[in-house]
Amino acid sequence: MEEEELEFSNSSSEKRYFPESLDSSDGEEEGVLACEDLELNPFDGLPYSSRYYKLLKEREDLPIWKEKYSFMENLLQNQIVIISGDAKCGKSSQVPQWCAEYCLSIHYQHGGVICTQVHKQTAVQLALRVADEMDVNIGHEVGYVIPFENCCTSETILRYCTDDMLQREMMSNPFLGSYGVIILDDVHERSIATDVLLGLLKDVLLARPELKLIINSSPHLISKLSSYYGNVPLIEVKNKHPVEVVYLSGAQKDPFESILHLIFEIHHSGEKGDIVVFLACEQDIEKAYEIVYQEGSNLNPDLGELVVVPLYPKEKCTLFKPTDDTEKRCQVYQRRVVLTTSSGESLIWSNSVKFVIDVGIERRKVYNPRIRANSLVMQPISQSQAEIRKQILGSSSSGKLFCLYTEEFASKDMRPLKPAEMQEANLTSMVLFMKRIDIAGLGHCDFMNRPAPESLMQALEDLDYLAALDNDGNLSEFGIIMSEFPLDPQLSKSILASCEFDCVDEMLTIAAMVTAPNCFSHLPHGTEEAALTCWKTFLHPEGDHFTLINIYKAYQDTTQNSTSEHCVEKWCHDYFLNCSALRMADAIRAELLEIIKRIELPYAEPAFGSRENTLNIKKALLSGYFMQIARDVDGSGNYLMLTHKQVAQLHPLSSYSVTRKMPEWVLFHKFSISENNYIRITSEISPELFMQLAPQYYFSNLPSSESKDILQQVMDHLSPISTMNKEQTVCEKCPETTEQRCAIQ
């Protein structure tokens, strides 16, 4: 790599690196620069605003700022740099800006900067904050890319994105030639996409010696990262603040009573500061919200207002950050109580948090490949997670952490590190991606933690059933088309099948609605009956997938006929629907439609409501979800899975539960083994339709059961002609072949 001459400064004032074109003093530029003592922003050529200097002072107070000179020297001399820092040390906002300065200094000859985040909310908020700090426009010099939303242009210098979006970009740009610096942030979260990127980028770095890789992580994972990447520079950021830790033995017996007692004790003490409560699951958030909200309304108003903020990280919600309305908070004191779960650890940005209450357990989804279902299991959090929760108080001059567990529990029952998602999740989507990348020669990935062989085999088997693989185990042309959709492979298969069955419009709506967050609002206590009355207006007799189409169509009609966004929000509120989830579904559907048009798949005119269309939608759904079928074994709503011996019930909000009509055979979208064992988003199917569309070799591999015997009898009665038609129904995008694996089954 050729020598690059950069000027560094270790002073407290910021030093930027200007390309020659901006540093020259010839011609017209000389007159402009000499006119006033205005310092120009090298990224847009405009004078800095007064706000820039105000934010610069705040940036200089961040713990990471002391390491700027060291970081820039290491960036210049090395291809990989690892940064170890606690939460709130500033590494996620400052390091990308320094990398942008580096790219600017070499005239972007190797590309711009991209910084990955695990959570889409974090990516958006960091982009907004950094654009403000750099004094540039969001969406131009600085932007973000998250699923189904792109706020960037071809001129964007620094972009934040979710890790899965950078992973998807590798399908069309395997060596990521648009970027000179790649930053993997919050690697300690151990998401599947981040682990895949860590492995694939090893090969990319070998192919592109000019590319720089920065890895940001909490201190707990540093030793593992160092051994994984070898002897690379490490920058450690110290961020020590006094935090008082209080362990409460006996609190685990009744955590809700302990939480309630602590919240009101803190509030009565008069000590200022917001409270964050880490609970085990989202159901606990709802339960705690009801309790704290009701009890808080009876408090003495002289103590100030207690504002309860439920933070559901999986929804597209605003991060919990400081309020701008400081004057109001001074006049009438408000103490905010934030209720969240483990996945909300990186979403707490407010410096006003002075108290953290930690239950020490979480409900995790652990995928069981043998039965193709998630189990929801209660487990202790890891020691690294406990430390991150403590660090939320790190920017406070003092803070207090209440642990609803003992020190012995923390040392003996908590694992040192958070488990990698790759070792606990369904890997079908990841394997489809890896098969696609293999086309570019990057398929042999060196994972930091190798996934279980059983999970990999199940993923390959499912892709084979879905006709995504050819006879050699490589990605088929059909599988390549499936990988174009940013969806679960089963859903991608259903969309492609809908092209054959002339119901693409309806299938895109279903795909968007099941991919977006839940469209039904979280219900305050006492509103359940009113909400159910409203929701009944959308029910469809054919099942929940059709009900979702009704809801989306009603939302679309309201949007088109409303004069303002406020009217749409009011309509959603009146019908107890989640407006942001429906907006997200609209955006998802638009992108899916764009993909359909780009790869020139057939698109029939919508015909929702006709009998033929209803049958075709079920055919398309079955083509992707034939592995998710259940049968009511006793006529009372006890559904036995076709693939294993788990019994489940319909979700209470299912159209069948509301109308009390229990179909014998159903196709379902979700199932998790938990205390309730609900199957969610269900629609009735017939055994005849199943046998016509499910692959024969999948059916033959099913375990013996009464349900399989019934299906065998159905198959015996099917005419040879229908069987022949099934084998000869071939996807138009696949090469002409009589192989059953390339059929739309």
TrEMBL record:
Residues 72-238 form the Helicase ATP-binding domain. It catalyses: ATP + H2O = ADP + phosphate + H(+). One of its GO terms (molecular function) is hydrolase activity. Pfam families: HA2_C, OB_NTP_bind, WHD_HA2. Keywords: Acetylation, ATP-binding, Helicase, Hydrolase, Mitochondrion, Nucleotide-binding, Nucleus. Its EC number is 3.6.4.13. Residues 1-28 are annotated as: Disordered. This is Putative pre-mRNA-splicing factor ATP-dependent RNA helicase DHX32. One of its GO terms (cellular component) is spliceosomal complex. Belongs to the DEAD box helicase family. DEAH subfamily. PANTHER family: ATP-DEPENDENT RNA HELICASE, PRE-MRNA-SPLICING FACTOR ATP-DEPENDENT RNA HELICASE DHX32-RELATED. Gene3D superfamilies: 1.20.120.1080, P-loop containing nucleotide triphosphate hydrolases. Its main location: mitochondrion. It comes from the Eukaryota. It is found in: Mitochondrion; Nucleus.
